[in-house]
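Quick start: what a row looks like.
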Amino acid sequence: MLKKIGIALGVVVVIFLLVVATRPSTFKIERSLVVAAPPAIVFAQVNDFNLWAAWSPWEAMDPTMKRTHSGAPSGVGAVYDWSGNDKVGEGRMTITESRPGEAVGIKLEFIKPMQATNDTVFTFKAEGEGTQVNWAMSGNNNFMAKAFSLFMNMDDMIGKDFEKGLASMKTVAEAEAKKAAEAAAAAAAAPPADPAAAPPAPAAPAAAEAPPKK
């Protein structure tokens, strides 16, 4: 009887391993959204890790999360380390590509709860008076990731976070665009400077008289 149970369990394990092996070895998750703001303003929200707190979907999951900024202030070489609760884990992001108004590439390293390294790319494309933002993450599926995908839909789970983050980014970027437009309108509406109202220029000092000739 025990032998039969052992054989059955062995068969189940073999079948499970075969099923896991058939799962895709790579993955890609992406979402996009149109933002009513110019590419330069939307790009700035991603290119500077200091601005992520205003729109990142993971910031609110752990208000006590430890954040460390190092490397370049923004753009290529900027580094963002985080460490928090079970919901956010621990990891690091490094900007590896920065093309103003076009794209930001990020090396995403997860340390806890599972180790993994993925590529994240944000692209920005002008659409009318706004910008289409695309957020994509891709990487390799190791055995654990393949097994996990049998029980959880990673595209749905992470895709929802992307959608939430893009919606928050839209709010922030559109507010910045509105401020910029109002400032430009105020500057254009301001009356030109009146030359007559300017204080008179100080008179030039009188030339010194030459001494009399002897």
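That is the whole record. The two ends are 140 Å apart (CA to CA). DSSP finds four helices and seven strands in the chain.
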